[in-house]
């Protein structure tokens, strides 16, 4: 059990270090822009926009908060991201990390 806890701590520390490096080099912003572009190109943004409209219509504008809407659409939004977009971003991050370790 302690090993699992240590692993979680190490993973969190590693993610924080990677994120810091991405931010420091400006790569995080470049990756975010790439993601935005790819999501628009594949129609993800339009799909999610339509889903938001459906949720608001279903629940009623007076009965839903922005936080409620975000909670409702986040799982679907993540699920709708195409695998090829996820793979491209992951590959870019791996390439970045490989370049940083040289």
TrEMBL record:
Q: Which UniProt keywords apply?
A: Activator, Chromatin regulator, mRNA transport, Nucleus, Protein transport, Transcription, Transcription regulation, Translocation, Transport
Name where it's found.
Nucleus, Nucleoplasm
Might you name a Gene Ontology BP term for this protein?
Answer: transcription elongation by RNA polymerase II
List, alphabetically, the InterPro entries matched: TF_ENY2, TF_EnY2_sf
Its main localization is nucleus
- Reply yes or no: does the keyword Cell membrane apply: no
Enumerate the GO terms in the molecular function aspect: transcription coactivator activity
Q: Name one GO cellular component term.
A: SAGA complex
> By its UniProt entry, which PANTHER family does this protein fall under?
ENHANCER OF YELLOW 2 TRANSCRIPTION FACTOR
Q: What does this protein do?
A: Involved in mRNA export coupled transcription activation by association with both the TREX-2 and the SAGA complexes. The transcription regulatory histone acetylation (HAT) complex SAGA is a multiprotein complex that activates transcription by remodeling chromatin and mediating histone acetylation and deubiquitination. Within the SAGA complex, participates to a subcomplex that specifically deubiquitinates histones. The SAGA complex is recruited to specific gene promoters by activators, where it is required for transcription.
Q: Which family does it belong to?
A: Belongs to the ENY2 family.
Indicate the quaternary assembly. Component of the nuclear pore complex (NPC)-associated TREX-2 complex (transcription and export complex 2). Component of the SAGA transcription coactivator-HAT complex. Within the SAGA complex, participates to a subcomplex of SAGA called the DUB module (deubiquitination module).
UniProt-recorded name of the protein: Transcription and mRNA export factor ENY2
């Amino acid at each position: 059990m302690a090993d699992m806890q240590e692993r979680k701590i190490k993973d969190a520390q590693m993610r924080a270090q990677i994120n810091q490096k991405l931010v420091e080099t400006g790569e995080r912003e470049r990756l975010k822009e790439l993601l935005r572009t790819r999501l628009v190109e594949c129609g993800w943004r339009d799909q999610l926009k339509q889903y938001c409209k459906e949720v608001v219509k279903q629940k009623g504008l007076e009965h839903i908060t922005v936080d409620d809407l975000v909670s409702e659409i986040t799982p679907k939004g993540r699920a709708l991201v195409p695998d090829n977009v996820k793979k491209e971003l992951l590959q870019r991050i791996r390439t970045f990390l490989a370049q940083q370790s040289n």
